[in-house]
From TrEMBL:
UniProt keyword Hydrolase present: yes
Lineage per the UniProt record: Bacteria, Pseudomonadati, Pseudomonadota, Alphaproteobacteria, Hyphomicrobiales
Ranges for domain Peptidase S8/S53: 136-298
Protein name, UniProt field: Peptidase S8/S53 domain-containing protein
PROSITE patterns given in the database record: PROKAR_LIPOPROTEIN, SUBTILASE_SER
Any one of the GO BP annotations: proteolysis
Length: 318
């Protein structure tokens, strides 16, 4: 039997200098958490970025599409976002536009989801717990911004995430990870068992990070640290990207891309109130943009950059 290892998939500005020094920097992102709750190095320096709030209430790191959705009355009302993450280990500083705060990895992830979809109900669950997840009434989204290298059979909560994705009872937004490698490939002999369990599941979206929110006039590219879909057609079909503007917030990593998509899904759920988790998943994937990306290739970007405005455009979805 080997020790449980969990790795949040985000990192902070204080680590950037050492990460960019070597091509194989992805391993340096690990914030290791053992089954006994000991922690690795997730510490960060203060990273207040002076991120201004826009006139429409959105913040500097958000896509303009979010403000348009709010103006139309779609803010995630009636939808539940269930954040499975680390809420116990070492906190660190960042700034999402409300001034520098000191929070734990899971709290930052949950705050991003709640800021994108301010009408959604946010529920927080610690990872590696010995129980399942109590889904709420109505549409549920599960965000998992970490990886796990032990069999899912040893972890009821992570198994429940996979079961919900395959049953289509919840949308699952899963961070793609920060190893600059192909989703689903082993790292130093270890597989991310949570990712493997979700490949092909009908209501799962793997989320990669872009350098910034793209436009046709200011195209963006995949962040150097982000994993990518690669050769697996199932992963390509499930993969979306969004901007992670860490230069403005101090937060870098696919950990912070996944809850943006979770917020988008909640906003869609507040418009398309009778849609199933799989229908909303497909709507986000099918409406992704490719004209905002440098040298679009599905092996790099999957379906493309998530477009909330395109996903909200129809009167109904099916």
């Amino acid at each position: 039997m080997h020790k449980t290892q969990l790795f949040p998939a985000g990192f902070v500005v204080g680590l950037i200098a050492c990460l960019l020094a070597a091509p194989g920097f992805a391993g340096d992102l690990d914030a290791g958490v053992s089954g006994k709750g000991t922690t690795g190095t997730l510490a960060a320096e203060s990273s207040s970025s002076g991120c201004p709030q826009n006139a429409d209430g959105t913040f500097c790191w958000m896509s303009p599409d979010i403000g348009e959705a709010w103006t139309s009355g779609f803010i995630g009302s009636g939808v539940s976002i269930n954040v499975i993450d680390d809420f116990k280990e070492q906190p660190f500083d960042a700034d999402l536009g409300r001034g520098t705060q000191t929070q734990r990895h899971g709290d930052w992830v949950a705050e991003i989801a709640g800021m994108v979809a301010p009408g959604a109900n946010i529920f927080k669950y610690g990872y590696l717990e010995g129980s399942s997840i109590g889904l709420q009434d109505g549409l549920n989204i599960i965000n998992a911004s970490y990886r796990i290298i032990e069999p899912l059979s040893q972890h009821p909560r992570e198994q429940a995430i996979v079961d919900a994705a395959w049953a289509g009872t919840a949308i699952v937004t899963k961070s793609a990870d920060n190893r600059s490698s192909e989703v689903g490939r082993p790292h130093e002999g270890d597989f991310d068992e949570l990712t493997l369990g979700l490949i092909g599941a009908p209501s799962t979206i793997f989320v990669g990070a872009l350098d910034h929110n793209g436009t046709p006039g200011n195209k963006t590219r995949l962040a150097r640290y982000s994993n990518y879909p690669g050769s697996n057609p199932e992963v390509r079909n499930q993969f979306l990207t969004v901007g992670v503007e860490g230069d403005k917030t101090g937060l870098y990593g696919t950990s912070y891309a996944a809850p943006v998509v979770a917020g988008y899904a909640a906003i869609l759920g507040s418009k398309f109130t009778s849609a199933t988790p799989t229908q909303i998943t497909n709507q986000l994937l099918d409406t992704a943009r490719t004209d905002t990306l440098v040298n679009y290739n599905p092996a790099t970007y999957g379906r493309g950059e998530a477009s909330l405005s395109r996903a909200l455009a129809p009167v109904s979805i099916r």
